[in-house]
Amino acid sequence: MIARVNGVALNTAGEILPPEELRQRACTELLRQAAQRTGLLDAADAPTPDGVISEAAAAAIDALLEHELRVPEPDEEACRRHHAAHETAYRTGERARVRHILFAVTPGVDVAALRKHVEPVFLDVRCDDGKGADAFAAAASKWSNCPTGEQGGNLGWLAAADCAPEFAREIFGRAEIGVLPRLVHSRFGLHIVEVLEREPGVAQPFESVRGAVATALRQQAYVTALRQYLRLLAGQATLEGVDLEAADTPLVQ
After folding, report:
1. How many other CB atoms are found less than 10 A from the CB of residue 112?
2. CA distances to 55, 203, 223 from 30, in Å
3. In angstroms, what is the C-alpha Rg of the chain?
4. pTM score over 0.85
């Protein structure tokens, strides 16, 4: 099935994309078309069904978002509240000894079908009573698409900087030990993750991380504004074969 945004194809016939990649292409196409409507991008700029846009389109989308999104500067009180609520996120030296089982997501993989395959493995290692054979290591050796599978999935001691950000978010700034109660999604695929040990690191006072806190709040505000803007565009568009959360209300600042 070919998905479309206002009649523009997002994929080719026979190309099966993971839902998240299809949604990403749809969002990019919504923004590309919005840039054309506002005169920031030449009407002759041609879309392609492979998700790759022209340099001119990328620049026009940047200009569009700079004009349309209003991201407030976080004040001192908001920064202090955020720091107090997320103190563990601003620790230095935090490390975790981790192992994982990776189920890789590659182009054309049916993510829903893959998840059905992963769930029984996940439940098996989650329910392991720890007696006798190591179910996690056995499952890693059998199923993992990572070379560490040969070592029972062992990743060793990691810091947040050693991991993809989406992986690190699920591991650090938490207290959990053992197999995490949820699958971890990363750019590489689906992971079953076990935290074997933690070193909590050292808490940092607000004054020493003020800049990082402000940056985090700006990023949160930007993402919120972008999602709202995309919902507005989706609500005004004709979508085929792709599910986006649409809204017909104005962008909330």
Report:
1. 9
2. 16, 42, 16
3. 22
4. no
